[in-house]
Amino acid sequence: MTDPALVQDQNGFVVELEQFSGPLDLLLHLIHEDELDITDLPIAKIADQFLAVIGELGLNQAADYLEMAARLLRIKAQMLLPRRVGDDEWEDPRAELVRRLLEYQQIRELVEWLGVAAARRAEQFGRGFAPAPPAAPPAPLVIDLNDLLAAAERVIALIPEPVLHRVVPRPLDVEGATARIEALLAEREAFGWRDVVGERPTIVDLLSTFIALLELAKRGALSVRQDGPFAPIEIRRESARPAA
Amino acid sequence: MSPLAQLLEAALFAAARPLPVEELLTLDPDAGAAAVHAALAEIRDAFAGGAAGEHGVELVAIGDGWQLLTRPEYAEAIERAQFALRPRRLSPAALETLAIIAYRQPVGRVEVDEIRGVDSGAVIDKLLERGLIEIVTRGEGLGRPLLYGTTPQFLETLGLKDLEELPRLEELSVALRPPAPAEPE
Fold first, then answer.
1. pLDDT for residue A181 is more than 50
2. What integer pLDDT is reported at residue B6 of this predicted model?
3. Is B26 strand, coil or helix?
4. pLDDT attached to residue A128
5. What parts of chain B have a pLDDT lower than 50?
6. Same domain, B13 and B72
């Protein structure tokens, strides 16, 4: 007996043996080897042999063989159940397995026939069967130094000029915004968001001012009020703050 | 040989595949099917013997066509000289799958798996790749499974004229029947 050859394939590992193409094949082999009667299988014996062989061949990892092993053990157990003498209702638990074995044996016989037919056909060659002659090797390259340099220049010319981007840090000026708000607070009791940020604020101005506002509100220097979403923001001086 | 036989011989020599009679008919619009068949017989007899004895090639009916093939007894020498190579033999798994598909077609993968007792997906893919089987239709039922059948390439690979040449199941020593009568194997 040969070691199992592992053949990798896209579905994972497929165990293909030189001798057996599946659990049914192995089972048939055991049956023929011992010259057992396929229609009256000594199931306990065959189950033990099957388990021994798949262990020996390292097939006890292969799902198909394991499934068959489980099936054999179940049939073996069912055969051990006591049954009444002359019980007509009794169904042979081996029946399905025997049917499959016979069916498979039939296939094996066809395999033999197909193999012979294919081998016979392979003995005859038709025209055009010979493999195409290998493509001629490319002609040796003839080139001088100038050509080579010119070619290199052409290739270099094709390389796109790298585009550089300068990344400029634009820190938020929270201090400046805070000073601006404090100046306004000193001047007026209440004012609007527009008064703080001016006519054409940049995104940095907006963010700086907003953070400064929140910071001052947290410190209790002012209160911020907005009546609804997108409504004007009103800023009011908060002076009379009771001490905690 | 008759002029028609010579024309067909030339065409069969030039073609690298079996040529069906319908295609041979296009060579000479005036020739009928009967004349083509007669001419084919003429060619076959010419290669098979005649005054000069047998030839190294013969005219063989394969699939639904005719092809000039070297005679089997020269395969070994031709291969040894590396003028042509015998195709790789099909594995037992491939032959099992082919047998099931040939007899049960159109048949789905699940049935093939059941009969073989192993997963046949990879084998079926290989047979599809080699052009020996093809998807013929989709089955009824869950997921509308793909159903496979054999191709003309299958017949050609086995040197069969048609599927009728496959052995009948009754002719096998193990005919599929209920295992009622015990029969010593």
1. yes
2. 92
3. coil
4. 65
5. 175-185
6. yes
Question: How far apart are the CA of A160 and the nearest CA of chain B, in angstroms?
Answer: 44
Of chain A, the percentage scoring pLDDT greater than 70 comes to: 81
Q: Which fold has domain A174-237?
A: Arc Repressor Mutant, subunit A (1.10.10)
Mutate to test the interface with A, among B82, B96, B153 (most CBs of A within 10 A): B96
B163 touches chain A (CB under 8 A): no
Q: Span A146-172, mean pLDDT?
A: 84
CB contact (8 A) between residue A120 and residue B177: no
Residue A223's DSSP bridge partners are A236
The shares of helix, strand and coil residues in chain A, as percent rounded to the nearest 5, are: 50, 10, 40
Q: Do B90 and A24 touch (CB under 8 A)?
A: no
Inter-CA distances, A24 with A30, A182, B80, Å: 10, 92, 38
Q: Is the pLDDT of residue A131 over 50?
A: no
Do A37 and B178 make contact, defined as CB atoms within 8 angstroms? no
CB atoms within 10 A of CB B57: 19
Question: Which position has the token pair 């080139």?
Answer: A143
- Asked if the Cβ–Cβ distance from B182 to A14 is below 8 Å, we say no
Domain regions of chain A by residue span: 5-81+92-118, 174-237
- pLDDT of residue A182 exceeding 70, the answer is yes
Distance of CA A28 to the CA centre of its chain: 39
Domain shared by B21 and B63, yes or no? yes
